[in-house]
Automatic annotation (TrEMBL):
Protein name: DUF3037 domain-containing protein
Lineage: Bacteria, Bacillati, Actinomycetota, Actinomycetes, Micromonosporales
Pfam families the UniProt entry points to: DUF3037
Gene source species: Longispora fulva
Length: 124
């Protein structure tokens, strides 16, 4: 496929104390319908999260992110759901430690490369 395709993405963030609303970006979720692409890019900086929220259960954060990756892959309850349904499921607002940010739009010729670029740019 040539040319640019529209995509949607959302930051994935850790919000240790929901009542404070402070967060650290730990990943990017990217969906490109025309390229049949849905993936989660994650970069966890343990030291940064520990400094941001001493006592944060990093194992629980990793387990939650593994669940997000499983949903992207169509595992468990996501089995049989379309990529768009899975993206909508993952980007729905929630009051948990791992949350999606707002959805943004863009154009790309290579969703996988775009995901890597966004993770580098927005997560670090």
């Amino acid at each position: 496929m040539t040319g640019l395709s529209p995509f949607s993405y959302a930051l994935v963030r850790v919000v240790p104390r929901i009542e404070r609303g402070e967060c650290v970006n730990v990943g990017v979720l990217l969906f490109c319908k025309s390229r049949d692409f849905l993936a989660l890019g994650v970069r966890i900086d343990d030291a940064r999260l520990a400094a941001f929220s001493p006592g944060l259960d990093l194992g629980a954060v990793r387990a939650a992110l593994a669940g997000w990756a499983g949903t992207c892959a169509g595992d468990g309850p996501a089995e049989g759901k379309s990529l768009g349904e899975r993206f909508g499921w993952l980007t729905a607002p929630r009051s948990t430690i791992v949350q999606p940010g707002p959805t943004h739009l863009g154009l790309t010729g290579d969703p996988e490369a775009e995901l890597a670029r966004l993770v580098e740019l927005l997560v670090g």
